Amino acid sequence: MSAMRPNRSDVHVSLEEERKIEEKTREQFDAIAPKRHTKPQRSDYSSDYSDSQRNFDRDINIPELIKFQHLESDDPQKLNYNGSDTPEEYVETEYYDDLNGVDKQHHTVVFYPKFLSLKLK
Fold first, then answer.
1. What tens digit of pLDDT does each residue of 17-47 get?
2. Interatomic CA distance for residues 25 and 31, integer angstroms
3. What is the pLDDT at residue 107?
4. Cα separation of 11 and 46, whole Å?
5. What whole-number distance in Å separates Cα of residue 54 and Cα of residue 45?
6. Compositional bias (Basic and acidic residues) spans (predicted)?
7. C-alpha distances in Å from residue 113, one per residue of 13, 105, 107, 110
8. Is the per-residue pLDDT at 84 higher than 70?
9. CB atoms within 10 A of CB 1
């Protein structure tokens, strides 16, 4: 079977009808597309956007979310430090003792040119 070409006598719709079909199609795809809230500027922070999705169930108790919101609302001045002393994070192990000799060992390569010469016959 060969592919059939459209016939010149096929029904053509008017420009107005074509625009209506295009508009209907656009509306259908716009309805399917996910709705997202506007992206804020980097310096602007808002916990709630006016155009955010309303279908999110706000009664869900997610422990991580509750903890995050609690930490976020805490005053940053509450952090207590023991002066300016920071604990020593470096722990010496035997692994580092073995590395002392790495700098002191030198490996040399002896070059013998007569072994590299090729004799072609």
1. 999 999 999 999 988 888 776 666 566 666 6
2. 10
3. 58
4. 55
5. 19
6. 7-29
7. 87, 26, 19, 10
8. no
9. 3
d(CA 100, CA 92): 13
Q: Which amino acid is at 117?
A: S
What is the distance between the alpha carbons of residues 98 and 116, in angstroms, rounded to a whole number? 37
Name residue 83's amino acid.
G
Euclidean distance between CA atoms 36 and 54, whole angstroms: 11
> Would you state the structure tokens that stand for residue 115, as one six-digit string?
């072994």
Distance CA 61, CA 70 (A): 13
**Which residues, 6+ apart, have CB-to-CB distance to 35 below 8 Å?**
53
Candidates 33, 38, 34, 62; CA nearest to 52 is: 38
Rounded Cα distance, 77 and 75, in Å: 5
Q: What is d(CA 35, CA 53) in angstroms, rounded to the nearest whole number?
A: 7
Return d(Cα 88, Cα 96) in angstroms, integer: 17
